[in-house]
UniProtKB/TrEMBL annotation:
Taxonomic path: Bacteria, Bacillati, Bacillota, Bacilli, Bacillales
CDD domains the record matches: SRPBCC
Pfam family, any one: AHSA1
InterPro entries: ASHA1/2-like_C (IPR013538), START-like_dom_sf (IPR023393)
Organism: Ornithinibacillus bavariensis
Coiled-coil residue spans: none
Protein's name according to its UniProt entry: Activator of Hsp90 ATPase homologue 1/2-like C-terminal domain-containing protein
Length: 155
């Protein structure tokens, strides 16, 4: 089944790439800016994450709590992370790309779904516009959080 890009987000941050990556990848930060994630349970130590590391994420979307198994299929500190989770709808892939710029960090997120069947393929194609409403708030909160951390570090 074909991979469908459901969401994309880009931003230029006036912040150090290492700080941006830390705020994106460490639970002590993620749980502060991402209101959907309840907890992540890592198979091993969170500080030892790398390609092949697995985890369970508990997320609340609306009134429903989901528990998903995830794997880091790529983990290149501080430039690139790809996370995959399997759901009944299919294989979800989230890609985080960070690039150093003269002003700070260029940040990109792409979310893809490989539908598990034709029904989910049709539903995904029809409703992928709605991902924007779910994810935009989270990543705008992420940017605000990074700036807050940058400010606190420079005080």
């Amino acid at each position: 089944m074909e991979e469908i890009r459901c969401y994309s987000f880009e931003s230029e941050l006036d912040a150090n790439i290492d700080l941006v990556f830390e705020c994106l990848s460490k639970d002590k930060h993620v749980l502060k800016w991402n209101s959907q994630i309840i907890e992540n349970i890592f198979d091993g130590n969170e500080n030892d994450l790398g390609e092949g590391s697995t985890f369970i994420t508990r997320q609340k979307i609306g009134k429903k709590v989901y528990e998903l198994e995830g794997i880091y299929t790529k983990y290149e500190t501080p430039y690139y992370v790809n996370v995959e989770t399997k759901t009944k709808e299919g294989l979800s892939k989230t890609e985080y790309i960070l690039r150093e710029t003269p002003e700070g960090t260029h940040f990109t997120v792409n979310v893809y779904l490989v539908p598990s069947n034709w029904t989910y393929k049709i539903i995904t194609k029809m409703l992928k516009w709605s991902f924007k409403f779910i994810y935009d708030d989270q990543f705008n909160s992420f940017i605000e959080y990074v700036y807050q951390m940058e400010y606190e570090r420079n005080e």
